């Protein structure tokens, strides 16, 4: 089973930056999409950014996703953080071959407040 371990969340002032990390372990497939999602209290879980094994990236303006394959890690760089960015951020792994598989990390809390 693929396992995801997240870190990097914490308390930051508005305008600050954080980099979240997600370390991937287990039986890693060659074709996949990884992403960062966030869920604020009372809100649905929304996609922040995704990156595929082929290198295709989708992300919002202030947040960027990247990978370091040598470290089996996916990152989310968050700049110019705003209070509305406060949420639990989750790492996600999705793969359809050889079978459908979806794995979520435990989540890491990001709090943006002065």
Task: Compile the SSE list and pairings.
Blueprint: E1 3-7, E2 10-12, E3 18-25, E4 33-39, E5 46-52, E6 57-59, E7 63-68, E8 73-78, E9 87-95, E10 101-104, E11 108-112
Parallel strand pairs: 2-11
Antiparallel strand pairs: 1-3, 3-8, 4-5, 4-9, 5-6, 7-8, 9-10, 9-11
Descriptive overview:
By secondary structure, this protein is mainly β. Helix content is 0%, strand content 55%. The chain has no helices and eleven strands. It has strands spanning 3-7, 10-12, 18-25, 33-39, 46-52, 57-59, 63-68, 73-78, 87-95, 101-104, 108-112. The strands form two sheets. Strands 2, 4, 5, 6, 9, 10 and 11 form a seven-stranded mixed β-sheet that branches. Strands 1-3-8-7 form a four-stranded antiparallel β-sheet, with no helix packed on it. The radius of gyration is 14 Å and the shape is elongated.
Mean pLDDT across all amino acids: 93
Instruction: Sketch the topology as an H/E string, one letter per element.
Output: EEEEEEEEEEE
Query: What's the end-to-end separation, in Å?
Result: 40 Å
The proportion of residues forming helix, as a percent range, comes to under 10%
Query: Measured on Cα atoms, how large is the radius of gyration?
Result: 14 Å
Which residue ranges are poorly predicted, with pLDDT under 50 across at least 5 consecutive positions? none
Tell me the number of strands. 11
Spatial shape:
elongated
Number of helices: 0
Q: What is the strand content?
A: over 45%
In terms of structural class, how would the helical and strand content be classed? mainly beta
Largest sheet: 7 strands, mixed
